[in-house]
Structure formats: C-alpha cells, structure tokens
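Database export, one record per block. Field names are fixed; values are copied verbatim from the stored entry.
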Amino acid sequence: MLIETLDLLRCPFCGTRLSVVENAALDRGRDRIESGVLGCECCAFPVVAGIPVLIADDATRDAMHALEAGRRNDALYMLLGLEGARLDAFRELTAGAHGPTYRHLLGVLCRDAEADYFLHRFSDPTCLLVEALLDALGDSGHPDPAGDPTNPVDPRTRAGAGASDRPGRGAAPFRHALDLCGGSGHLTRILLHQPACTGAVLADVHFWKLWLAARILAPDCEPVCCDANSPLPFADDRFAMVLLSDAFPYIWHKRLLAGEMQRVVTGGGVILMPHLHSAHGDNYSAGDTLSPAAYSNLFAALKPRVFDDRMLLGRLLDERVVDLANHTPPAACGDTPSITLVASRDAGLYRDYAAADPLGVTGVLAVNPLYRVDYADGVSRLTLAFPTAEYEDEFSLAKRYLPQEISVSADLRGAITPAGVGARYDELRRRRILIDAPPRYC
C-alpha cells in the first residue's frame, strides 16, 4: 500500500485514523508499506503483501501475529486460505521464473464456480454494460478526481503514473474512484484506464481476490480488504465515483452500506450500481433482493434514477448508445431481472452517449477464453465452448455478439497483433472474440 493511503483510511469500528506501528512486522520503503501493523484507538490490523486488512476476526489476528513473529509467508498463506495440497500447488505455481497465469491461480485460490465467472468476466453482458457506462460517465467528466471544474484532468494522465504525476493528489488526495466489492479487479482495471480517473481503490472482503487484482488485473489500484457489512474504512467525501456492481443484493446491512456510500462520495460525485437483482424478476443466485423502489429509497437524498438493464443492454448492442436519458420509474420496472441505479446531484449526466469503440489495447490481445482454437493451413477456427450449462444459461445474451463458430485467416495461438489479424480486427474486437487482457491472464 502507498503510505499516502493512510490519509484515506479510518478504523471501521471507532472511526479514528490509522498509524504505522514500529515493530518487527514492518517492511516499509520510500513510499510503500509491504507488510506491517496499523493501529488506531481501538484495534490493530495487518498489512500483508501490501494489502491492509481492516477486518477483526481470528484469521486476521493470526496473520498479524505471524507477521510480528517474522513469518510473512505464513501470514500470506493464512489470509489466502491455503493449506495442505492447495498450499503445495500454490507454492509450485509461484516458484517459476515467469509467474503463473490468472487462470492457473484461480484454479488454486477459488474453490467454487466463481472461477468460471471471473475467467470469462471481460466478455459477459454485464461487464460490457458496465464498461460502456464507465466510458460514458468518464466522457461526461466523471470521475472527477478534484471535484472542481476549475481543475480539469489532463486526459493524457493514465493509471501507472507516479503519485507526484497525478492531478488532484495534493491537499485532497484520493478524490477519485472506489470499486466496492470489486472482486479480483476486472472493473477496477476498466476504471483505471478512464482518462479522467487518477486512481482507484479496490475494496473486497476476500483477500485472495485482492491479491490477484494487485498482481495481475489491476496492479495500479490500491487494494483494501474490508467488510461492506460494516462501516467503510474511508474518510468522508473522498471519491468522485463509487462503483458497486453485482454485489449489493448479497449485502445484509444494505441500509448501512447505502449510507456509507453516500458518506464517502464527493458532493458532485456519482454512485453507480449496475446489475441490481430485482425482487420482482428471476436471477441466478439472486441473493437477498429488494424491489427497485426499495433500492431507490436507500439513496433518496441523491435523487437516484433507475434503468432497466434489458433496455440499457439492448440499445448498447443494437445502436451503440448508452441511454441514460430515459430512466424507468421504479414502479414501472415490472419483472425485469435487474436494474442499474445511478445517483448523483449532477443532473447533466442523464443523457444519451455514443458508446466508445473498444478497439484500443491496454494490455495484450488474447482470444476470448470461451473459444477453443484449432489452427490449420493458415486459418484459426474458433468454436464457442461455455464452461458449464449453467454458465451458458445465465450469460446466454453473450450469444448476441459471440458467434458459435468463426474462422480467421491468422494464427491466433500465440502473440496477436492488429496487423497480424488484418481487416477483421475491428469486428473481432467489437464482438469480444478478441479481448484486451492483462498480461498473464489466460
């Protein structure tokens, strides 16, 4: 973690500032803390592998004691939940010179079907919609790291710049984006590549997801391990955007979290909540759902607007338009499975946006992992193969842009370049047959 992150953090229990404990656990460089202990007026929390863990439970406490005893690897293994054969497999994977891929690490760190969801996240319909929404809101000037129209962001600024190079990081640092319950960082990565975003905090309760994000998907993010069912461990009025995608129905303390999101967002900022499962529609693993009206009421102070996800995705795929001009009154949402909620005092953002063309590459070009590649005679033949019948059913809308079979006159088995793909490059990128992936993803 960056040392300057301490200015952002607060204890989730007593609300006081955190400071670095000078003890044997501390491994601190010029501007970062790799391991150590943070203390407030009521608790102590470990920093393991550069990730502050602001949770009070037995596993966190045991990891902190291991750090203080000089057993940093043991502290990491504890928080990753590794032991026995899984620990042996992890050690073997990470011992190589080149480092394991995201796919291989998922096979060790994730013990359920969520691994399929994560591996194929970049091309599922919900991710496409969130990416388009972030592009649109970024195009309208959000997230605005300074919250000040007289201090515009240089569009050349990208994630990965040094802290001193980023605008808005002086007297009021971290007025940028929070990806809340953001998993292993797929959407954080998209946030960080918005021209108006100077940086992003990724928060999740699962340490292993943050560890993956910090090493592969979003290495420029600031990961913070915390529980969204408790008060958020952040100072007031710090984030120009708070993104919470997919996870809110699984939070029990929804009223608390809604209040916390409004506390940490800046006065002119945006709360974006895509893919809220509706209690009136059918969803896979729906969670503890509410009605669209109940979701809206939780954010009433910001006069939120609700959008039917079916209509948003339909206009995006059919017309390449992000339609934030036509919201749906909560009572009129009917049996739609999910909605998107946008809450902001800035009424100017509610309009139509031309969807950005996803042709650029910020990482490496890769064949969508949903495809099997067979190569012969100068032609790559791609066949769509969903990992399970359940995945295919849940994400069936992906078939609107992912063909069952396609042939490309190029060798797609190794390194891929736009020039090597040729005239079909734009089509393959728009349809997410080729994806922009982080290095070491597949």
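Remark 1: The chain has three domains: 3-80, 120-354, 364-437.
Remark 2: The radius of gyration is 22 Å.
End of record.
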